[in-house]
Amino acid sequence: MPKWSMVIDLEKCVVCQGCSIACRMENNTPVVTPELAGEGREMRWNDVFPMPHVEVGDYPNTKTHYMTRPCMHCENAPCIKVCPVQATYIDEEGLVRQNYDRCIGCRYCTVACPYGVRYFNWFAPEWNPTIKQHLNPEEVSSGSGVLEGPAVRPKGVVEKCTYCIQRLDNARQRADAEGRDFRPDEYVPACVETCTGKARFFGDLENPDSTVSRLAKSERAFVLLEEVGTHPKTIYLQEGE
Amino acid sequence: MNFPMDNPFFQFLYWIMNTPGIGGIVVVVEATLIVIAVSLSLRWINKGADAPEKEQFAYPTSALHHYKPKRRGFGGL
Amino acid sequence: MLTIGKRDKEVLLDPLYRAGRGFYILLGVLIIIMGWGLFMYIRQIVFGLGVTGMDRPAYWGMYMVNFIFFIGISHAGTLISAILRVTGAEWRRPITRIAEAITAFALVVGTIQIFFDLGRPDRVLYLFTYGRLQSPLLWDAVSVTAYFLGSIVYLYLPIMPDAALLRDNLPEEAPPWRRHLYKWLALGWRGNRTQWLRLEKMIAVMAVLIIPIAISVHTVISWILATTVQPGWHSTVFGPYFVVGAIFSGIGALFIAMTLTRRALHLEAYITEKQFRYLGYIFITMSAIWFYFTYAEHMTQAAGQLAEEFPILASKLWGPFSASFWVMILAMVAAFVVLVFPLLLPDSWSKYRIFNPRFTLANAVVAGVAIVLLQVPGMQRVVANLSPGLPPITLRIIALVAGVLAIISLLPWLKRHLIDTMVIASALVLVGMWLERWNIIVPTMVNPRLMPSSWYTPTLTEWSLFAASIALFIFMFVLFFKLVPAVSVWEVREGRVIDDVRSQVPMPAPEPSSSARGAMRRSLEETEPTY
Q1: Residue B73 — pLDDT band, cuts 50, 70, 90?
Q2: Partner B contacted by A34 (CB < 8 A)
Q3: Is the alpha carbon torsion for C73, C78, C83, C84 positive or negative?
Q4: What residues does each domain of chain C span?
Q5: Lowest mean pLDDT: which of A197-201, C259-263, C358-362, C442-446?
Q6: B69 to chain C, closest Cα gap in Å
Q7: Per-residue tens of pLDDT for chain A, all 241 residues
Q8: Which of A86, A176, B20, C133 is the most exposed place for a label (fewest CB within 10 A)?
Q9: C-beta of residue A206 within 8 angstroms of C-beta of residue A2
Q10: For the stretch A51-68, what's the b/e string if a residue is b when 16 or more beta carbons lie within 10 angstroms of its beta carbon?
Q11: Distance from CA of A207 to the nearest CA of C (A)
Q12: Residues A22/A194, Cβ–Cβ less than 8 Å
């Protein structure tokens, strides 16, 4: 059983925000007006942002560190522990998933997440007509009352990065249709596929020979907020000064 | 898995903690038990009216408590 | 057929069947406020929670503050009345019913806050069908369920004999639904010995059981916050801190409810200064414990200076939350001063001229003017132009001295007006406790780890629903005391019997003071019998 993991090399990241846009198109995250974004209602499952409170050097020779932040898919996820209805849960492949059909919108998970990667639908989602025609029609729904992935979310539920679980689904189905075993290198999330600087790597952490396993052993590897004990599977490679 | 979680007992505890629906069952069972206990107690008080006693007290007086049987409850005050 | 004395009947039972114009005006106003709140809530459901001021990262805001606040208020009643019953405090008798009613209604209002806060209130039943015990929200469901059912029973049990009394003394003109209601509430109460003994036993059992349940409720609410890893919340002291705060604000609510009920229903002969005085002692104790916990909580954060916690503390001490933090501290200190200082004032001091309300007013005006001159921008320059020799430091000293004098000279007035004092202190404490919850929830929310700090301002929706919640609370409270007497009739009458008996028992002479002791010893030596 693979353990999905993502490695992001901050040294290679050029802050083009392509990952953020690719994620938006792949996962149908609603677009909000600049006014609402100013009020903190924007949604970017994969946010690219300057690190707050971290600036290096004296004016004018300053440098800002940029960060790109998908869900950490923690092994010991605080959001899962607090959800009263198991609308969020971790599957056997280590993906922290969100079930829109179950979520009651109490926002306890968004409060408990130390990374701030969970987003709440403050309003019903809106798109301009052109985008609306090109929404990703895929959705992941298994059985009764499970709706995940890029399916359009109703207002009042929480959503988050899924490592593009619909792509995993598709890759599995393709392998099935072709009558062969599914290989973990057949699937990458949209942000990894689009990354301009090839700064993102995705793969199976269980396999010691996979790219992500090797990079995770790098001296530059670190995880965000290691001290809160969440054991994230999104791993960063440190940027040189 | 590390220590406590390879023990079946702790696995059972985790199952109780983590299974959706168990929480609801606990709340419902708890509420049912309380309601049953209270209803029985209220019925018990209600049945007390059938005791063959003539006097009625609008409030507990010393007369009520002086004539008490040996088993002296400490209730009320 | 149970009987009641004429005076008790006039004061306690008869007003239940009368309603003046003020009653209907009050109900009308409350219904208007609640209707507005309902409109705003429907609007929120239609448009989504975006109509509130909540955002990312301030995912929780005023609804959560109000939830904790109202559940805290609910500790007024059951806990206080249970502790007083268990410890056999005789003076509790006239106020237990008011306290227990506060509990039941504040719990209802507090639980409604969860509906306000949910993004999908239509799925609230999922809490039961898919409830997971690992989530602290389920712990809350478990303990609030127990507390709510327990409080209802605990409120109902002492009503039984009163309902029977009402049933037996129903006036001719009373509407038939009242007859049915009281008959149903009395549950076949006859008032014979067996029934009384059983009722007393059950009340005693409930009083003991409800205390741990009440403590569990607010502890679990604090654990909703404390079990997360968010800076400022992940604190071991939160459980007891919240319980103490809950009891503290609960007594505040009880004082205000007692005073208003007493005034509205003319219960001066029942709820006397004695109740205010003794409950005031508990109030002072809770105040001291609250200061202790507040200090412990903030001091450890300040001394630890953890990189993530300290900015939150700093935002309270001198950052954007300094206003709400220091107003909270000021309100609590003022409440403590108002409660304690009059007790310390010797009676003989009232002869001094400075203990005069007019002097208070003058000093307060002086202090107020000085503060305005100091605070309002531009005023300082005006001051400097008008009187070049008056630097701001002089103004500060004037404000301080005048303020202190105003408080000191007010003390004898406070001492004479015990009930007003308690209402002032209670209002201060309620404001302070609401701000305390605000200062716990919001600063942590707007200072997340990996995001720039943001700001949270409640919108009209949140304020409207807060007002509607308070209105709903008052509405239930007022209607309830049109149905059952605000004072537990049988308990008060039982108390009179006990007082009577006590007055007949020869009490031992009071312990002599040390000065009298010498004289007594001398007189004893003189009369010492010789064997």
Answers
A1: very low
A2: no
A3: positive
A4: 14-230+458-496, 290-447
A5: C358-362
A6: 10
A7: 899 999 999 999 999 999 999 999 999 998 888 888 888 898 999 999 888 766 777 888 888 888 899 999 999 999 999 999 999 999 999 999 999 999 999 999 999 999 999 999 999 998 888 888 889 888 887 766 778 888 899 999 999 999 999 999 999 999 999 999 999 889 999 999 999 989 999 999 999 999 999 999 999 999 999 999 999 999 999 987 6
A8: A176
A9: yes
A10: eeeeeeeeeeeeeeebbb
A11: 31
A12: yes
Percent of chain C beyond pLDDT 90?
66
Per-domain residue ranges of chain A: 4-237
Rounded-to-integer distance, Cα A39 and Cα A33, Å: 10
The answer to whether the CB atoms of C2 and B73 lie below 8 A apart is no
Report yes or no: B66 at the C interface, CB cutoff 8 Å: no
* Ramachandran bin of A57, using left for φ above 0, alpha for ψ from -120 to 50, beta for the remaining angles: left
Instruction: Name the B residues in 19-38 with CB < 8 Å from any C CB.
Output: 19-28, 30-31, 34-35, 38
Return d(Cα C373, Cα C392) in angstroms, integer: 9
* Cα–Cα dist C67/C336, whole Å: 26
Interface test with C, best of A122, A123, A147, A223 (most C CBs within 10 A): A122
Chains near C (3 or more Cβ pairs under 8 Å): A, B
Measure CA of the first residue to CA of the last residue in chain B; give whole Å.
Answer: 56
Of residues A199, A161, A189, A193, the one with CA closest to residue A43: A161
Question: What are residue C171's phi and psi, to 5 degrees?
Answer: -70, 160
Tell me the residue length of chain C.
531
Tell me the CA distances in angstroms from C299 to C125, C295, C308, one per residue in order: 42, 6, 15
Candidates A80, A86, A106: best to mutate against B (most CBs of B within 10 A) is A86
* Chains A & C: contacts with CB separation below 8 Å: 138
Q: Which residue of A has its CA nearest to C226?
A: A112
Q: What's the mean pLDDT when you consider all of chain C?
A: 89
Interface test with C, best of A48, A104, A119 (most C CBs within 10 A): A104
Q: Is the pLDDT at C46 greater than 70, yes or no?
A: yes
Q: Do A106 and C445 touch (CB under 8 A)?
A: no
* Residue of B18, B19, B22 to mutate when probing chain A, most A C-beta within 10 A: B18
Which of these, C258, C328, C252, C255, lies nearest to C286 by C-alpha position?
A: C252
CA of B4 to nearest chain C CA: how many angstroms apart?
17
C304-329 residue pLDDT tens: 998 889 999 999 999 999 999 999 99
pLDDT at B75: 47
For residue C337, pLDDT beyond 60: yes
In DSSP terms, A235 is beta-bridged to: A7
Q: What tens digit of pLDDT does each residue of B26-65 get?
A: 999 999 999 999 999 999 999 998 888 888 888 887 677 6
Check CB contact under 8 Å for B62 and C195. no
CATH of range A4-237; options 3.10.20.740, 3.30.70.360, 3.30.70.20, 3.40.1010.10: 3.30.70.20
Which residues 481-510 of C are in CB contact (within 8 Å) with B? 489-491, 493-494, 497, 501
Compute the distance between CA of residue C61 and CA of residue C55 in angstroms, rounded to an integer.
9
Q: Kindly determine whether residue A112 and residue C117, on different chains, have CB atoms separated by under 8 Å.
A: no
Q: How far off is chain B from C308, nearest CA to CA, in Å?
A: 30
Closest CA to C56 of B43, A26, A138, A117: A117
Q: Using CB atoms, which chains have 3+ pairs under 8 A with A?
A: B, C
In this structure, what token pair is assigned to residue C269? 């002969």
